[in-house]
Amino acid sequence: xxxxxxxxxxxxxxxxxxxxxxxxxxxxxxxxxxxxxxxxxxxxxxxxxxxxxxxxxxxxxxxxxxxxxxxxxxxxxxxxxxxxxxxxxxxxxxxxxxxxxxxxxxxxxxxxxxxxxxxxxxxxxxxxxxxxxxxxxxxxxxxxxxxxxxxxxxxxxxxxxxxxxxxxxxxxxxxxxxxxxxxxxxxxxx
Length: 190
Prior knowledge:
Blueprint (H helix, E strand, L loop, with lengths): L1 H7 L1 H21 L5 E4 L3 E4 L22 E7 L5 E2 L2 E10 L3 E8 L2 E9 L5 E7 L8 E9 L1 H17 L14 E10 L3
Parallel strand pairs: 4-10
Antiparallel strand pairs: 1-2, 3-5, 5-8, 6-7, 6-9, 9-10
Helix pairs in contact: 1-2
């Protein structure tokens, strides 16, 4: 190491390190998730998605037991532009209670009807974005809920049908929801 410093000088070595770090940063930023990143064949690794997590709403009541359950939204991919009506698809593995899609805008939640009915580990549901989220951005969450929350969602839809008003729910109203996955979307504004 000292021989390199004596031969090329400290400034040249520091410059080379900065250039190398810059090349790595640019390569990392433009690489797609789950793809191998290679910097001049020296360093190789697989880039993994580091998506932000929504607030945790996983508080199980005393009657609830731990559930080995995984679910994923497979389509449309996060960041997609969507119309007001669009289909969401995904997978589910394990024993679920009641599966729902829920829209999240800010701190408010809107269940999406109908409740999901998986078959052979796959599910599909529809989303109707009836409002005007700020900047057109919103999230769709795949959630597993208890009987109590499932009944609350059904009552909420019934009240909305009769009043033609569907106010957003607060997190305490869906407090035991087990968030399995979520995706962010951008509404195509008309």
